[in-house]
Amino acid sequence: xxxxxxxxxxxxxxxxxxxxxxxxxxxxxxxxxxxxxxxxxxxxxxxxxxxxxxxxxxxxxxxxxxxxxxxxxxxxxxxxxxxxxxxxxxxxxxxxxxxxxxxxxxxxxxxxx
Length: 113
Prior knowledge:
The structure is a single chain. This protein is mainly β. It has no helices and 8 strands. The chain starts with a strand and ends with a strand.
């Protein structure tokens, strides 16, 4: 799910295809208080240079059903574990991160108190 905190549309939005492999890319339009639900793990999505005068501010929530999570799987479906330390800085516990590829997800995140 993608949750914009500002009004989004056009170049200050997220661009995605409507179904996996369809390639019919479009910008999501949403207002604060709304969210967009899509198959971000299977549909290509990206942002473009924001040519508007409005800064896009958003966050995303990635959900994996517990029944589908395979904690023993190794390989490209897992990236690095991340932790949030004092002061809110996020760091990788494996010494370095890599960008997510289509279909990948972060293994875990934790907050250090």
